[in-house]
Amino acid sequence: MTIPQLDATVRQRVFERMLLMRRLEEGVFELADRGAMVGHFHVYIGQEATGAAVLDAAGPDELLLTTHRNHGHLVGRGAEPRRLLAEFLGREGGLNRGRGGTLHATDRALGFLQTSAIVGGIVPLAIGAAYTLKNQNKAAAVIAFFGDGALEEGYVFEAFNIAALWKLPIVFVCENNSVGAVGQQGGGYNTSVSASTQFTAIPKVFGIETRVFLDGNDVDGIRHAASEALQRARQGLGPTFIETVTTRWPGSQPLWPELATGVTNLAVALGGARAEGEHADWIAHQDPVLRVARELLDQGVSAATLDALDAAIRQRISEAIDFALHSPDPQPATAADYLFAQGQ
Amino acid sequence: MPSSPFPPSPLTADALSAIYRQMVLIRRFEEQVQRFARSGLTAGLVHLCSGQEATAVGVCHLMRPDDYLASSHRGHGHSLAKGMRPDRLMAEILGKADGYCGGRGGSMHVSDPALGHLGTNGIVGGGIPLAAGAALAARQAGTRQLAVCFFGDGALNQGITFEVMNMAALWKLPVVFVCENNGYGEYTALEDVTAGSRLAARGEVFDIDTREVDGMNVLDVLRTVEQAFARARSGGGPSLLIAHTYRYSGHHVNDQQDYKAADDIEQWQQKDPIQQFKRHLLEQGLASAATLDALEQAVAQDIQAAADFAKAAADPSPESLSTHVYAE
Amino acid sequence: MQRMTFADAIIDGLCHALRSDDSVSLIGSALLGLGPHRRKVDRIKQQFPGRLLDGPTSEAALAGLGAGAAMAGGRPFVDLGTASFALLAMPQIVNEAAVAHSMSGGQITAPVVYHMLHGVRGGGGAQHSTSPQALFWNSPGLQIVLPASPRDAKGLIRHAFKTNSPTVILNHAKLMPIEEDVPTGDFDIPFGQADIKRAGRDITIVATSHLVQLALEAARTLSGSGIEVEVLDLRTLCPLDEDALLASVSRTGRLLVVDECPLRCGPASEIAATVAERAWSSLKQAPQRLTRADAPIPCSAVLEAALTPDAEKIVQRVMQMMR
């Protein structure tokens, strides 16, 4: 079965999300260099294809949940970069008014629910949201983003069982980023702490429909699968599990993330520059942003168009950084605000 | 199923008698527990395993005294099969000081380290991590001990079961997981709460050797478990056995069982593990009717003695309250 | 008004909630425990088909499902069974539901209602006798409700579906058969309002749940000896009606807190500390706590009784305090 290729318009839309995700994360590193980031953080660099493709297929009524690696999902869905960065700095102008930070940033108005940093924590919550959508007879689905580590947590299995049993309208998106290049080539992918060599075997135990993309940068395939899965869910046919595998981004290697591959240079894809440095290979062959840029060129989109897109995005991020740095700290007296919800 | 690389060891006449006697002992023990429960003498709830004797005995028969056992809330059969004395076990069920745990554990929390018995357990799936831990300790100590854990079909939906099976497979722990699938989790049928078309998939997903076995046929259980034990002791890692069996009684002794079809119990009684095995022994000339009768009578006496012992035993004294809260 | 058991009142409250709000649903039909009362849940199955689902033995996932369903606009009531089993659900209750509103800066609400049966029910042993309310109270963000009478059960349960924060309702198996007159219509009792179940001038006994009934029993006995006990039922640990607490103690000058959580770090300790801090000058003597012992509950009935508060022990302690 051949997957239909995305036309240039859709691909460009996906690309725009990806580039926004990438430039936002580079902005995060800039803020980290300035000592403004609060606490440990996790970036989405190298995984943009999955998020952008899935989010492009999502409808406005969909509900979403994500994890500590949420920046890409939030900005890809439309969260304002300025409010995201302010949140990461713990400032009053942030989406969570500085209370969530990089680990728990969320945007309820865009359909995001809890952002949890407990591995696997969002999976039971996500099936609950799907349970509500089903009870409300809404033709919408839940998208749950999580990583491969979640498949080691017991209540994720419990949740799969229930989602299948009750045919809940949910799309599980498992972003497997733990594979080193060697593991992926060898075909025996997955992490070292699961006895299961094929993660899709886990949801299959419960009869859940699965799709796996060993090429996690395949935006055509992923977008198609996401679209199908959302349709299935909205039609009451139950859950789908989509796994995408990306080669681990070199910057995630150390305990504290580093911009190891440098600021992304579109010219490497558009012409006029070569991949350089210690991680030239990743840049040349694994970088999803550069790959999709090349795909767009192949579809006849001009380099100038893409450069212009990039310039606009970089401007937005620059303003967002400014906004974040100038956003005030929350008032200490409000530290325990929002403990309980108002209204009875 | 693929043919076994481990030919079943022949069972001696003594072994066959012992197996028969053990199953009858469990059946009669449970009947006595039920009588005590109906007269209000048991401490707390009791969960009877009548009908499931073949899994308890079939699995435990080949265990060594120093192998570990972790059991479930339905664990009297496992406990007796592992070597617990009926009198002290009965006393524990009645909450008496002479019970295995000084009356503190009762039916659902009875244990004996001397027998490698880590305990019956009131939490569904509660014994599973304990068994894996014991297996890990044995592996690290370099002994060839193994651990067995019994659990029901309800535990197949507990997250911790998956977590432990994953680790057991990764670390090749010498543990044998035995799922006694009696079709019900409390009052709920298996199919109402368990998604997926094959239970075995839950073990296979971690590359754990998984077998389904007729839990009403003690020889089937024995043969299957023998392979699993050989695998564990030789460093081959864990196994999962799914034994299809049935409990005649309710979830606990007061359960009226209105969730079971009217002829459910009758149908399963036709596969009664004790009757099946008895027929097999007699038809194959492996034991005489007289021998079996004598065994049955001896068991009846043992159970009576156990009941008398338990009833006459003293309650624990309130002065001993704070004993054993912390270890010396 | 209608004479109802505690068990009936729970069901009645749930029925009113189900009737008035389509977003209410129930997960778990074992909420009335194992006794004869358990059949009363059938009324919900008959009157509201499809609104009560039974899940697998997966406490963590079901607790999380409840929280997530609430975040998405539902109002689920998730029964976790015996309170000991709720400990399997702690990650989802404490790390997710309790913190959702505050860590999202007010964006997310998670009005999920958790239900469980706590305490020493008789023969439960170490794993079926837990009272986890202290653990929940020490996890900010959860409302904690402990009804002590049929009327309160109906009203408090009903109110849980009107608040916007996660709620943990802890009932007790020994309360199920208690009867009293309960209004038949739809009514609710706000959280944070303690109730003087019995007025008295000599000493305040503060309690929740089944312990309120024990305190009332003790009060009847003590009255015969001329000691008039005031029994203050907190109804909810969080929000806590500190005003009622301090007002009562300022009238009587004596405080005994009775609770079924183990002593250390339990609710009794918190109440005693609050009163000592804020009503010191009203006190004629140090506040006292009468709680379950700091030990796992043994199976033996004799040992279990020795570790657990009862009316007789309350009477003895009050008489000591009044000497």
Summarize the structure.
The complex is a heterotrimer of chains A (344), B (328) and C (323). Chain A is α/β, with parallel strands linked by helices and 344 residues long.
Notes on the structure:
The complex is a heterotrimer of chains A (344), B (328) and C (323). Chain A has 14 helices and six strands. Chain A is of the alpha/beta class and 344 residues long. Chain B has helices spanning 13-38, 53-60, 76-81, 86-93, 127-141, 159-170, 190-193, 201-204, 218-233, 264-269, 273-283, 289-312; strands at residues 68-70, 117-119, 147-152, 175-181, 184-185, 188-189, 209-214, 239-244. In chain B, α1 runs parallel beside α12. Chain B is an alpha/beta fold and 328 residues long. Chain B is built from twelve helices and eight strands. Residues 1-7 of chain B have low confidence and may be disordered. In chain B, strands 2-1-3-4-8-7 form a six-stranded parallel beta sheet, with helices on both faces. Chain B has a two-stranded antiparallel sheet with strand order 5-6. By secondary structure, chain C is an alpha/beta fold. Chain C has two domains: 2-182, Thiamin diphosphate (ThDP)-binding fold, Pyr/PP domains (Rossmann fold, 3-Layer(aba) Sandwich); 195-322, Rossmann fold (3-Layer(aba) Sandwich), CATH 3.40.50. Classes of the chains: A alpha/beta (344), B alpha/beta (328), C alpha/beta (323).
